[in-house]
Each structure stands twice: as C-alpha cells, then as structure tokens.
Amino acid sequence: MPFWKTVAVILKKDLRVEFRTKEVFNSAAVFALLVIVTFSMAFEPSAEQTREFSGGLLWVAFTFSAMLGLSRTFAREVPNDCLQGLRMAPISAAAIYTGKLLSNILFLGLIEAILLPLFAVFYNVRLWPVAPQLAVIVLLGSWGLAAVGTSFAAIATNIRLRELMLPVLLFPIEIPLILSLVEATTAVIRGGETILAPEIWLRTALGFDIVFTILSLFLFEYILEE
User: pLDDT tens-digit profile of 136-176?
Assistant: First the structure.
C-alpha cells in the first residue's frame, strides 16, 4: 500500500474512533480546564503578573492534558490484537507513525484551541491581538509533544502502568520544547517585553520538532518490533 494512502487510512480510523467514543478528547479537555480553573482560584495575580505567568500556566495545562491523550495512542490498539495486526500488515512502520502523529496533532490542537479562549476569560488576558503568533506556537507545541509522545506511547504500550510511565519517560526529553513554548508564549502575550525575542524560541521549538520527527520515522520500526 502506498505510504500516504496508509497514513490516510490510519488517520481516518483514529479520527472515526475518537469522535465516536470521545475517550481522549473528553478526559484531556476536562483535565486541562480543571488546571486552568484551579490556578485561577488559587491566586489573583495582577494584569502584569498574569502576562508574566501566562506561558507557564498555559503549557502546564496543555502538557499534562496531552499526557492523557498520548497515553491512549496505541492502548486502543491492544484489544483484539489490533497492534499485532498493524505489525504484521504489509505497511511501513513510518506510515503507522505518521498517521498516529497527525491524529495526535489534531487532537492536541483542538483541545488547545478550545482552552485558549477560556484562559483569556479566566485571567482577563487579551489573546485576540496576538492570535496568529499564538497559533504558530500552539502548532509547534502540538507537533513536538506528539512527535515524541507517539514514539514513547508505543514503547509504553506493554507496560502495566503505562499512564504513569509515559510522563516519566517523556518529560525529560520534552524539557527544551516546553521551555521554548513557555518563553515564546510569554513573550508574545507581553508584547515582546522579554530579553529574547519570540522568534528565537520558535526556531528552537521548530528545530526540536524536526529532529525528533526524523528520528522517530527512522527508529519506529525497531520500536514496534520490541
């Protein structure tokens, strides 16, 4: 089967399953919303403090909710030996990875797009003037989280406590990406009032995304064999 046709089939299957059950979306979105609401109730920062903390608050919520979604990437393939069927099918491991990666990017992007307006309401932050820049940051963040998370979700599939082990495996690798996203988001919301321009952090995030996507494409065949 051609590469992109395989990718489209896997992506379509994941989207159909998710929109039928809403298993990943509901749990991840509710968890992220709870984080945002909890922080808003825990303290009442001033407008300047809110802009200063905005990047950290947003990406704490996004990252932890992403863990819930990514942990189910291959877990839904375990019943009825569906994962074994994927391994035995005459398709490339890179195509499987790409299909799963695209579905995870879509899910994470959708959750983030829904939560951003809620964040603006709870913290009284004007995000609309910087919406294009935030859209780029969210895309790079979703890509990076999904690029590494898809591979590590496959590694953790056969681990009994995979929901607990995935963050342990994933967070040390994602630190450069998360730091870049936090700094870029804060810089954009504060109107560039930071030491380094947002573009520097965006380049760092883009480099991270490209490097780990290429590595995963080459290594995913060995990951599946394990």
Answer: 999 999 999 999 989 888 887 766 666 677 778 888 899 99
CA distance 77 to 59: 28
Count other C-beta atoms under 10 Å from residue 141's C-beta: 29
Fill in the DSSP letter of residue 44: -
Among 112, 106, 132, 133, which residue's Cα sits nearest to residue 201?
A: 133
Contacts of 112 (CB under 8 A, 6+ apart): 62, 138, 141, 142
Q: How many CB atoms lie under 10 A from the CB of residue 52? A: 16
The dihedral through the CA atoms of 158, 67, 175, 43 has a sign that is negative
Residue 49 neighbours by CB under 8 Å, 6+ apart: none
CA angle 44–48–50, rounded 5-degree value: 45
pLDDT tens-digit readout, 70-107: 877 777 766 666 667 777 777 888 888 998 899 999 98
Domain ranges in the chain are 3-225
Which residue type, as a one-letter code, is found at position 169?
L
